Amino acid sequence: MKYILVTGGVISGIGKGIIASSLGTILKSCGLHVTSIKIDPYINIDAGTFSPYEHGEVFVLDDGGEVDLDLGNYERFLDIRLTKENNLTTGKIYQSVINKERKGDYLGKTVQVVPHITDAIQEWVMKQARVSVDDDGVEPEVCIIELGGTVGDIESMPFIEAFRQFQFKVKKENFCNIHVSLIPQPNTTGEQKTKPTQSSVRELRGLGLSPDLIMCRCSMPLERAVKEKISMFCHVEPTQVICVQDVSTVYRVPLLLEDQGVVSYFCQRLNLPVETSPRRMLSKWKEMADRSDRLLERVSIALVGKYTKLADAYTSVIKALEHSALAINHKLEVKYIDSADLEPVTLQEEPVKYHEAWHKLCSSEGVLVPGGFGTRGTEGKILAINWARKQNKPFLGVCLGMQLAVCEFARNVLGWEDANSTEFNPESKHPVVIEMPEHNPGQMGGTMRLGKRRTIFRSKNSVMKKLYGNVDYVDERHRHRFEVNPEMKADFEKNGLQFAGQDVEGERMEIIELEDHCYFVGVQFHPEFTSRPIKPSPPYFGLLLAAAGKLQSYLAKGCQLSPRDTYSCCSSGDSSPDVEICELKFPSLS
Question: In 10 A of CB 375, how many CB atoms?
Fold first, then answer.
């Protein structure tokens, strides 16, 4: 097993996740089986109880793990399926050590950070690195480990010490450290500054780790003199200083790293038994990057949510939209709308903000209402859904978005004016969305309906069934505590709102579709979590097709785009019934 540790310096949020994912993509292109582990130094057990403003979105895995959004980057870039054990936190480590101490595993010894915590970290990494993440079940050959935060943080000290020991345990030829640092370039002088990187590397070396590669994040390509200066003061060869400048799309990052010889370096440093030239998979990334830069036609989607001040809060949603827009040769324009700004109370208090929000909505070609929690902004979301339904605008509701679509229909079509979710109004006479029986309100973390669950299609004429390739069922990831009230199902269906998909038992409503509408779809699951750059998520793909005016022709042609709208792409062998695209056709996998 080869281990590549990615650390960061100077500032957090510098792009370690994208760089780690890009390295994995390059190595996978060379024919290697690659896995990834993300280490978060916070004491939380997982990311499930975080506000999206804390660490961005909560990414959900097949096994129900609520993890850091960087695991989403790993899955999208590498097209792999990770588990919750691939996200390691301080809380998980301390919990496991304390549980052992309570059982008497340490035989009366004083339990300390060194060696007990550090040993637990190393054991966790070595065990998880060998868990297969590909459909072929083959054990990984390379494990890329991303250490969150920045070097010098008090929270990350036990992990740094653990890897200081780890490099000797697994031997030098099996361990490599990549340090990602910032090269600021002040506008006043325009000079690229190396001091922050020098200080960061010096601190890392003082803690016992010597970087093999220094990845320099910068706005412009590194000047040769700057590269040589970093080389001299950071004790590495100039070829070990890699420039990672800002690029037009993240698809260019693997290409950028490969152009600077990282494959040759890894082959030499880690003695990898591979060709030095990545194969066809990387050419697909180049094709996607070139296409993304050449796109001229635009399609605009209004994202109506409550965490719109931070784009990371909807990372997977945006990526799923981008994948679908790229698939139909359009450049995506996302219009972020705070749902609270659409409500009448905003008109009274801040009329300019109110009119700006409605202008964004009305000028968009499609409407997306993503998942969320809490009462704030829900009435604004319902207003946006009402507008999309009445104006025949393409609409997709995800999780809470689907539940609110049911509420809107009940109020304005069925005439149940007080229809609501019991999450927002427990006293409603028409509780169209109710709490699931198995939910445990006494504990917040990990108590929702989480992970991959099966949805059975009930109708042969369902738009979603066609978009998924006319399969009988799909497996998608869930994260919710509330569900559509099954007792009211008949009232909705006889008035035109069809429940096209249900769970295996037929008790839970998974997909809604509105008759006589260009595209009005709601899904209880989160399809964005399984979207891939060359395999867009069908619900999002349908939204983009409808917004671009191509859905009906796409369905009429047997779910194929015209030659000018498509590009050649091949599946990586994913045998799951979710979706597989070849030249953007969704074949039946049943």
Answer: 11
